[in-house]
Amino acid sequence: GFELEIASSGRVIPVRADQSALAALLAAGIDIPMSCEQGVCGTCLTRVKAGTPDHRDQYLTPEEQAANDQFLPCCSRASSARLVLDL
Ligand code: FES
Q1: The 2Fe-2S ferredoxin-type domain covers which part of the protein (predicted)?
Q2: Which of 43, 46, 56, 61 to mutate to test the pocket of ligand 1 (most atoms within 8 A of CB)?
């Protein structure tokens, strides 16, 4: 697992290995728009302020993925211990 930090509040939300980052956010009461939940539509796109996403989507271009400043929480994870989200 890894942790998500909400930049605006400093709140830290753990993501278990058996749940998506999106599921962890929704369970914590943080509303993220979503649709496909498979990394193809881009609806759940969320800005990342710090940390390194482990991109598993098919929506962002390789260049966008490499910039590490946004990710798709319905399918992507983190390769750092924590991602700070611009929420
Ligand atoms: Fe479609 Fe995340 S909900 S990419």
Answers
A1: 2-87
A2: 43
